[in-house]
Design brief:
single chain, 10 strands, 340 residues, alpha/beta, 2 domains, ten-stranded mixed β-sheet
Length: 340
């Protein structure tokens, strides 16, 4: 078995056929399996999976009895994988034609631990942006220069299955940013990484994606869970400190962005006590926790972060509709909606 393709599924009936079709119609002469993990969907996703399973003996459907989140769904699929390499495809995304053949041809010439490639970003209106990360094929060692490409998503890489055993990732129940933990562990284990210049994956920017959370409170709790997992990764791997610290910085940046907006809402306060404690464990200098604490308590820093991360329009809406004027009008509603 050359490839195992894992598809976590939750309430994906609107996009699932497109996803599965892109996989099952690959012009690949080798052998691959599809492992779809239904995370207790309440729509017709399971029926769609079963309707597409016919005629494909290497198409397995696994079911969760309760909704456990995308991280657990990925782990469920990984445990059943048999392929030499593992690829992950989200249920609202799709593979580009010829993706498997291109990756297979590359690794036949030079077997590696990880293959990474470019992707297309498609929004709900059909607008497509090609995201070019790699301009030429190359085989490199995992260095800090390419680390950001590891922790931003699971789907932009194909990983040797033998590297994915006994991971900290398998013992987490993350519903958000599980890609970060998966990617950092893969980075720490890999010895060789192939960079492919082709566009082999289409990422659909879906506001209702299974990786989205519903409230700011849920979002903060999920960040706490990610930081706890980072602490465990640091404990499990030698020489992991600089890599884990970069992961913590990535999380802190996300928190800065969220705090800047969440404070727009009168009911948007969140308790950062546990977040700050974990950041102190991960960043011994204390810089990340101090910066975050100051941002949470300073109006000036919130406005500055709004401008830094969200642009002048939202920062102006905050100042004029959030501080100087009553919380009414289009500008305030727009900012409030961004915070919800």
């Amino acid at each position: 078995m050359d490839f195992s393709i894992i598809v976590p599924v939750y309430n994906a009936e609107n996009h699932l056929v497109r996803c599965l079709s892109s996989i099952l119609k690959q012009d690949f002469i080798g052998e691959f399996e599809v492992i779809a993990v239904d995370d207790c969907s309440s729509d017709n996703s399971l029926e769609i999976l079963r309707n597409n399973q016919g005629g494909h003996p290497n198409f397995a459907i696994l079911q969760h009895s309760k909704n456990e989140g995308v991280g657990v769904a990925r782990t469920t699929g990984l445990k059943e994988a048999r392929g030499q390499y593992v690829m992950q495809v989200d249920s609202d995304d799709w593979l580009m034609p010829g993706a498997l053949s291109a990756v297979y041809a590359a690794i036949q010439g030079e077997p590696v631990d990880v293959v990474m490639f470019n992707h297309a970003r498609v929004d709900g209106q059909g607008a497509c942006e090609i995201v070019t990360l790699f301009n030429e094929q190359d085989v490199v060692e995992p260095t800090m220069r390419i680390l950001p490409h590891f922790y931003k998503s699971c789907w932009n890489k194909v990983v040797k299955r033998s590297m994915l055993e006994k991971m900290v990732y398998h013992h987490t129940s993350l519903r958000h940013s599980e890609d970060l933990i998966f990617g950092i562990e893969v980075f720490l284990r890999a010895k060789t990484v192939m960079l492919l210049p082709g566009v082999h994956y289409a990422y659909y920017h879906n506001a209702a994606s299974i990786t989205q959370t519903k409230t700011r409170e849920d979002w903060i709790r999920s960040r706490v869970a990610v930081l706890e997992a980072l602490v465990k990764v640091e404990e499990a791997y030698e020489h992991a400190d600089p890599v884990v610290l970069e992961g913590a910085r990535h999380q802190a940046k996300g928190l800065q962005k969220a705090l800047a907006i969440s404070k727009l809402n009168p009911n948007g306060g969140v308790d950062l006590t546990e977040v700050l404690r974990l950041l102190k464990l991960l960043d011994h200098s204390g810089t990340l926790s101090v910066d975050l604490s100051r941002s949470a308590s300073s109006v000036f820093r919130r406005v500055a972060n709004l401008y830094r991360y969200w642009g002048i329009n939202l920062a102006a809406s905050y100042v004029f509709n959030g501080l100087l004027l009553p919380r009414v009008g289009y500008g305030w509603r727009q900012a409030r909606d961004r915070a919800d």
